[in-house]
Amino acid sequence: MHPTILADLAAKRDSAAVVRRIYPVQHPSNPAPGLPQACLEARLSLAFAEDGGTTRLVGRDHFGPLLVQKPFYPDGRDLCQAVIIHPPAGVVGGDKLDIAVKVGAAAKAQITTPGAAKWYKANGHVSRQNIKLEVGAGGVLEWVPQETIFFDDVNVVLDHQVMLEKNASYIGCEILCFGRTASGESFTKGQIKQHIGIRHDGKLIWFEQLRLSGGSAAMKSPLVLAGNTVCSTLIAVGKAVSPTILDTVRKEAGAIANGAGHLGISQLKPVVVARYQGNSSETARRIMLHIWGLLRPQMLGREAMVPRMWNT
């Protein structure tokens, strides 16, 4: 977003703290000498509702540079797509992002992002992201942001909570990249903490947590990263998938991996989990999108469709 737009947003609000860092700024990992490191706090709340066969974005409230500009309907009027935009294009040590999404009964929504999320060097502060997703009875939510890149020496806490009511469906995908390997950087310092919880009809059906220190033995352990720099996960909750379809998913996704990295796909009713570890974010993306495309018709009753943002 152009800096003058952010300045106008700040001027229209009572508090000057609404936008505390106007973009562009000097590279976040190299603040100007003598200047204090500004910490940014941003919040976004979205609400979707079904209205006569159309899913509408009925609630949109933001604080700071975290927003959705307009809803899209690339897959029919019954599914509303929202693209979350973070104008600073990166998260600095001390920043905090809060995202809350409510999908009403029978509504269908898809959330994505226009590019990779970047978590910069901690600079002595902890960065946080809290995501809370709620889906009403019979509703559908696809949470499919693009890659997340952790720079060396980050200190990040991520919390991702999903609450699904009866007959609600959810597909969530994430691709985590540890270090900027394309720039020759490794994840040798810092810490990442992540918590993921999914409740379906009031019952906890999925919980996992990660605590990873840069350069630690866990990065080479076969129980964690096994020496890989990319970890991607797709979690789908909804209709059960037949063993025949799962075998097809394993076979075709395995062909894309072509022996590089590690791929596993399991079904723990009503959850299907696919995880790939390797050293190429592009390969991880292709695998996750292919798996998503195969599961989507089975679990959501919708044809495979890659978000246009992923192709730009």
From TrEMBL:
Keyword tRNA-binding in record: no
Function in brief: Required for maturation of urease via the functional incorporation of the urease nickel metallocenter.
TM region positions: none
Keyword list, A-Z: Chaperone, Cytoplasm, Nickel insertion
Subunit structure: UreD, UreF and UreG form a complex that acts as a GTP-hydrolysis-dependent molecular chaperone, activating the urease apoprotein by helping to assemble the nickel containing metallocenter of UreC. The UreE protein probably delivers the nickel.
Family annotation (InterPro entries): UreD
Pfam families in UniProt: UreD (PF01774)
Similarity section: Belongs to the UreD family.
Superkingdom, natural source: Bacteria
GO MF term (any one): nickel cation binding
Location relative to the cell: Cytoplasm
Protein name: Urease accessory protein UreD
Keyword field contains Chaperone: yes
GO cellular component: cytoplasm
Source lineage: Bacteria, Pseudomonadati, Pseudomonadota, Betaproteobacteria, Nitrosomonadales
PANTHER family named in the record: UREASE ACCESSORY PROTEIN D
